[in-house]
Write a structure and sequence with these properties.
- Pfam families: PAP2 (PF01569).
- This is Phosphatidylglycerophosphatase B-related protein.
- It is found in: Cell membrane.
- The radius of gyration is 17 Å and the shape is globular.
- It has helices at residues 2-7, 11-23, 29-42, 46-70, 92-108, 114-134, 140-164.
- By secondary structure, it is mainly α.
- The mean pLDDT is 87.
- It has one domain (2-169).
Length: 179
């Protein structure tokens, strides 16, 4: 699959993939997450703010620990557009962005923005994951493992927190379920 991506690289697609890597990476995604956490907190949706922070932060911590356990080398550097430090499995970009997309979907699901947020979150996570393969810095299994790990982590966290913070299951804006 990585050979297919390499054979279909174009300068335009490479620029898009590199931009996704930056936005979904350690410099920008945490700032986006913190901005949304702050907005939720200011809006009085403290359980939602805590959930988003724990979802993305916990996925990041889980990723670091998992990489240290498996220590899988990255794909051949000759295949890659970028050079990334550290181990390959699971993809940190895929894991953090999937956690972000799933968490904001769960937060806004009962609001009017539910479907658009769900679609945007899913599309975003898929685009970031595909970009990691396109750039040659991860195997497809790294991306899949990162996304699935985040799915299990974030949904499990949501169910657990919902037991102790029932307000988490409502809309952050206090809207009624319009479905």
């Amino acid at each position: 699959m990585l050979a297919w991506y390499r054979a279909h690289r174009t300068p335009e697609l490479t620029r898009v993939a590199e931009a996704l890597a930056v936005i979904g990476g350690v410099q920008v995604l945490p700032l986006i997450t913190l901005a949304i956490v702050a907005g939720l907190y200011r809006a009085g949706a403290r359980a939602h703010a805590l959930f988003l922070a724990l979802a993305v932060g916990g996925a990041t911590l889980l990723n670091v620990v998992t990489k240290l356990i498996f220590q899988r080398p990255r794909p051949d550097v000759l295949e890659a557009v970028l050079r990334e430090p550290g181990f390959s499995f699971p993809s940190g970009h895929a894991m953090a962005n999937a956690a972000f997309g799933i968490a904001i979907t769960l937060i806004f699901w009962r609001s009017r923005a539910g479907w658009p947020v769900a679609v945007l979150g899913a599309v975003w996570a898929v685009l970031v994951g595909v970009s990691r393969n396109y750039l040659g810095v991860h195997y497809p299994s790294d991306v899949l493992a990162g996304a699935l790990s985040s799915l299990v982590w974030v949904v499990g966290l949501y169910l657990l927190m919902g037991q102790f913070r029932p307000s988490l299951r409502g809309s952050p804006a206090g809207e009624r379920d319009n479905r």
